[in-house]
Design brief:
This protein is mainly α and about 220 residues long. The chain has three domains: about 1-60; about 80-140, no CATH class; about 145-210, no CATH class. The protein contains eight helices and five strands. The protein has a three-stranded antiparallel sheet with strand order 1-3-2, with helices on one face. A hairpin with a 5-residue loop joins β4 and β5. α2 (about 60-80) crosses α4 (about 105-120) and α6 packs parallel to α8 (about 190-215). Residues about 40-50 have low confidence and may be disordered.
Length: about 220
């Protein structure tokens, strides 16, 4: 079994993250609670996410923890008051929650299914599996080529600034997490190659400009 930990869920508030942590500890599941408020991912066109706390677990534990989370909040979903904002959502909006579960809390995901069922539009469990699988495949597609960022990166590289180093490293190493725990490179190989070139040029130019300033 892999010992690498992958982001399972992100939270705005630490107390919310600790609720999940308590469940993980109770079932002796390896985890890490991290603060990602300064993530590189949020810069230069990455997924901008204001959530600050993330719980990381092993990829192999994703399905198990998913089931444990459902058991944890099942009672809350069954007893939620009908003044909760999801009850005002249209069928289309509720279906969007179900098809994009990684963008919503587990509570909202389950409640959306409950409301749809009450409205006579229950989504079959087998169809849900197909939807979730398709969603992972869609998210696995790499980002569009960031041409504007590559251009800025080369300009910054030849000017010898640290911005070029930062952009080059971002293009080379930026990864995004999928709903099933996998992490893939966010950009295609040719864009990562540009990132490598920008990084190398930036480092060389930095020392050249630094040397000129010292000996001038």
């Amino acid at each position: 079994m892999s010992t690498e930990l992958t982001t399972y869920r992100k939270f705005i508030y630490k107390d919310d993250a600790l609720e999940l942590v308590n469940v993980l500890e109770e079932h002796q599941i390896t985890y890490e609670l991290a603060n990602n408020s300064s993530q590189l991912d949020s810069s230069f066109g990455g997924d901008i996410n204001t959530k600050q706390f993330e719980v990381k677990i092993q990829k192999e534990d994703f399905e198990k923890v998913d089931r444990l989370e459902e058991e944890l909040i099942k009672n809350d979903v069954e007893n939620v008051q009908e003044d909760y904002h999801l009850f005002e959502f249209s069928d289309e909006e509720l279906i969007e929650i179900v098809t994009k579960k990684e963008e919503w809390s587990k509570f909202d995901y389950l409640l959306a299914q409950k409301i749809l069922k009450q409205r006579g539009k229950e989504i079959n469990p087998d169809l849900l599996k197909i939807i979730n699988k398709q969603r992972v495949e869609n998210l696995a597609t790499q980002e569009a080529s960031p041409t504007w960022l590559i251009i800025i990166g080369y300009v910054a590289a030849f000017l010898g600034g640290l911005l070029g180093i930062f952009i080059g490293a971002y293009l080379m190493y930026y990864k995004k997490a999928l709903a099933n725990g996998e992490r893939i490179y966010g950009f295609e190989r040719k864009d990562r190659s540009h990132g490598q070139n920008i990084l190398i040029i930036s480092v060389i130019a930095f020392f050249v400009w630094f040397g000129l300033k010292i000996f001038s």
